[in-house]
Every structure is written in structure tokens, then in C-alpha cells.
Specification:
It is a single chain. By secondary structure, this protein is α/β, with parallel strands linked by helices. The protein folds into two domains: 100 residues, no CATH class; 313 residues, Alpha-Beta Barrel (TIM Barrel), CATH 3.20.20. The protein is built from 17 helices and ten strands. The strands form two sheets. It has a seven-stranded parallel sheet with strand order 2-3-4-5-6-7-8. It has a three-stranded parallel sheet with strand order 9-1-10, covered by helices on one side. It is globular. About 10% of the residues have low confidence. The structure holds iron/sulfur cluster. Iron/sulfur cluster binds next to loops.
């Protein structure tokens, strides 16, 4: 595939951004293509868009080296960090999308796009971690808006989810010093025994670190006990950018990059399902994004070399900013966040670079279902989940604040309109009988 180098006219403008969106909407009418992504790009008679004009430190030469990198990707070969950096700086948006779509076809041939029916339960909003981008938490447990869900409340939420056909709950919350370690084990055990049909994916690595701090136990002990109680996986939150310079700036009290990876590797060793995540838009550089991707790719190599599944999926999304967060109120707020175009560039680059993670999810809650549909043409094979009751991202101003959930019917419709075949799955990407509730 011949790649076009980025041109000066390719600089992002709101007009081009709007063009991308309206072209995407028009494309939604073409739903019966044999090769959806090829047809998608062929139908875009638009000038492609690029998002970030950061000076590249790499010494490859566009466009010659773009063609060589392209050949490697289409042949299923791994690209180097330098090549990824070169692609990021020089390939245009639509070429990145084509390459990512080709890579998806190598990993998962066909037109199937999966989705999951699940519910978030944010069991407490009390948190001492004070992430600068978070509008969800209350620092003081005695704040009038602070809460810890009772078992009665959790029951009601699970029963509502089951009635909608949910197969999983994501059980996550703040770092609440008032909850003893045994509370976590007991609540997982009680949910598992009361609702054995629902799969429990619970606690980000950062919450596991909190449990380590209050219990003095090792990651192995904690994750082993939670698994014994009925937990089946870790959702993968709290990764943001796995680069400690970024983390010191935006979430200095949170788990460090290597520790996040260590928790995940212990979980993978226990055969708990895990997801790799990434949030862009903290003002990070491409070098710092690649530091993040390198950590994930290397960890996945180590796990798969041991015969483990490792991360069974990867998902990225752009940071949401609102005046409810200290980052949103900062005088530097304009330099944070990421446009839809930047998100799509990152989605494509991640599919290409993380060549050892099979499933890549589109993120519709932050930029809307239409951008989620576009992401399916930039290498994603999964539309994520119904996201009932998402609180953390929506509290920071995501589109989910008003439209915090999509029904299974809506997810299927969006997938079909993007030109793919919807299929319901569970956390392990096993297909499920179609739920039409
Ligand atoms: S993002 Fe999570 S860890 Fe950070 S302040 Fe919010 S609830 Fe706490």
C-alpha cells in the first residue's frame, strides 16, 4: 500500500473535523459491503485530516520509509518504535486507517464486530488519590455527597442489569481508606454467591495497590483471594498514560507505571481476564505514548511466551475535561484533551503497534457512537459495552453525562450501519446467544 506523506494543508481545522464526521454519517448508509473498510475509505472523497504537528525525532525519510513501513504492516510484521513514531508524524489519517484495518483483518478476518451487555457499579466515590482529571470523587468520607453502596443498592443494580441481559458487572470505585481489606473480599464473595450468573470484573490495578497498602498483603495474595471469592477479571482502569513523568503531573498519588503492569501480570498469571487501556490528551508527547504502548506490548510478549492469554483486549479514549476537575479549571486546560481525529489516529496506531493484543475496542462514550462507528474502520473489532451507569468519565464531562448508556439494540444498529455484523460476546470474547431484551 502506497502511503501519502502528510502535507501542510493537512493541519487539523474544525472544518476538516466536521467533514470527517459528516462523511462518516453518510457512510453509515453503506452497510452491505463485502470489505467494509475498503469501501469506507474508497467512499471518502475527502481530504484527509491530521491532528498533531509535533516535530519528529526519528531520522526516517518520508515518503520512502512510509512505503517500507506500510509493507511491513500489511505483511503482518512487527514495526519498531522508530517506525511507529515516523508513521504517527508523517502518515495521513486515512492511510493509517487503511493500515490498521488491514492489520485487524490479519488478526481477525471477517466482518464480525462484537459487543457486550454489562453494567458499571461504582461502589464508592470516596477517594484520597486526587487525580487532577477526575470530577467523580469526594475526598472526605463525611462530605454530604460521599457514598459507599450498600448490598441492597448493589443488589438492585445487578438485578436491573440481569433483566437487560447483562453478562458482566464492572465493579470499581475510589480509593476509600475507610473500607478494610476484608470488605473487598466479602463483597465479591457475596455477589458471586448471590448472582452466580453474572461475571465479576472488579478493581483496577490502582485499587489492588490500595488493598496492598491497607492489608500488607502481596499482589499475589490479594488477587488469589479475590479470585477465590469469585472475581473473574480486572477491568484495566487507571492506566491513563503509563509514563511516570505524565503520572507525576496528573495523578501523583496513583499507582506508578511499572506497578500497574506488575498487577496485571500477576492477574494474568492467575488466569484472570485483563484489559489494556490508554487515555490520551494529558498533554503527553508521542514519545510518552510510545512508552505506554511499549510497556503493554512487552508485558503481552512476556505473558504469551508463558502460554497465557495476557490482555484479551485494548481500548483507548480521549481525556474528558470539565470545570468539575482541577485539570479542567487549570489555566493550561486548552492544551489538554484530544479531538476525534487525534483519537482515530491513536486508535489506528495502537492496532498497528500492539500487534500481540487480538481485540481492540472502539470507545463510543467519550466521543459519541458515530466516532465509535468510524473507529471500527480504524482497526477496532469490538464496539465495547452498553456501559450502564458509567460515572467516572461522565462526571468529567463525557457525552455519557446525558447518554450514559446504549441499549444492545442501539449497539447492534450502529455496528450494522458501519458495515459490520454484530455479535454479542462475554468478557472472554466467547459469542453469546443473541439477547433481544
Ligand atoms: S480517577 Fe479514580 S483514583 Fe483518580 S481521583 Fe478519581 S476515583 Fe480516585
Amino acid at each position: 500500500m502506497a502511503l501519502r506523506p502528510r502535507s501542510r494543508e493537512d493541519q487539523l481545522s474544525p472544518t476538516l473535523n466536521e467533514q470527517c464526521l459528516s462523511q462518516g454519517r453518510r457512510y453509515a448508509k453503506y452497510s452491505d459491503s463485502l470489505d467494509s473498510s475498503t469501501r469506507f475509505f474508497n467512499n471518502l472523497g475527502m481530504k484527509s485530516c491530521t491532528a498533531v504537528s509535533e516535530t519528529s525525532a526519528c531520522n526516517l525519510q518520508p515518503p520512502t520509509d512510509l512505503a517500507k513501513i506500510s509493507e511491513k504492516i500489511v505483511a503482518g510484521q512487527r514495526i519498531t518504535r522508530q517506525e511507529a513514531e515516523h508513521l504517527y508524524h508523517h502518515a495521513d489519517l486515512l492511510d493509517l486507517g487503511r493500515l490498521a484495518a488491514a492489520r485487524r483483518q490479519l488478526a481477525l478476518p471477517g466482518k464480525t464486530v462484537t459487543y457486550l451487555i454489562d453494567r458499571n457499579i461504582n461502589y464508592t466515590n470516596v477517594c484520597h488519590t486526587d487525580c487532577t482529571f477526575c470530577g467523580f470523587y469526594r475526598h472526605d468520607a463525611r462530605h454530604p455527597e460521599s457514598y459507599v453502596n450498600s448490598r441492597q443498592v448493589i443488589s438492585k443494580k445487578i438485578e436491573e442489569a440481569l433483566a437487560l441481559g447483562a453478562t458482566r458487572i464492572l465493579f470499581q470505585g475510589g480509593h476509600n481508606d475507610e473500607l478494610p481489606y476484608q470488605w473487598y473480599v466479602d463483597i465479591v464473595e457475596w455477589i458471586h454467591q448471590t448472582y452466580p450468573a453474572i461475571e465479576i470484573n472488579a478493581f483496577s490495578p490502582s485499587e489492588i495497590e490500595q488493598m496492598k497498602r491497607i492489608s500488607g498483603k502481596s499482589y499475589e495474595q490479594i488477587l488469589g483471594e479475590l479470585k477465590q471469592a469469585g472475581m473473574r477479571g480486572l477491568p484495566g482502569g487507571g492506566a491513563e498514560i503509563l509514563d511516570d513523568d505524565v503520572r507525576r503531573r496528573v495523578s501523583p498519588k496513583k499507582i506508578k507505571a511499572d506497578e500497574w503492569i506488575s498487577v496485571m501480570e500477576v492477574a494474568q498469571g492467575l488466569e484472570l481476564t485483563t484489559t489494556g487501556t490508554m487515555v490520551i490528551g494529558f498533554g503527553e508527547t508521542i514519545v510518552q505514548r510510545l512508552n505506554h504502548l511499549d510497556r503493554l506490548r512487552a508485558a503481552q510478549d512476556r505473558s504469551t511466551a508463558k502460554g497465557l492469554t495476557g490482555f484479551n483486549a485494548f481500548i483507548s479514549w480521549p481525556l474528558q475535561l470539565s470545570d468539575d476537575t482541577s485539570m479542567g479549571r487549570s489555566r493550561h486546560a486548552q492544551s489538554y484533551g484530544a479531538t476525534a481525529i487525534e483519537y482515530l489516529r491513536n486508535v489506528a496506531l495502537c492496532r498497528i503497534y500492539l500487534d500481540n493484543i487480538v481485540h481492540h475496542q472502539a470507545s463510543w462514550p467519550t466521543l459519541g457512537a458515530e466516532i465509535g462507528m468510524l473507529a471500527l474502520h480504524f482497526g477496532c473489532d469490538d464496539m465495547g459495552s452498553t456501559m450502564m451507569e458509567e460515572n467516572v468519565v461522565s462526571s468529567a464531562g463525557a457525552l455519557t453525562k446525558e447518554t450514559w448508556s446504549l441499549s444492545p439494540e442501539q449497539l447492534r444498529t450502529y455496528i450494522q450501519q458501519a458495515g459490520f455484523i454484530p455479535a454479542q460476546r462475554d468478557t472472554s470474547y466467547q459469542m453469546q446467544p443473541l439477547s433481544l431484551r
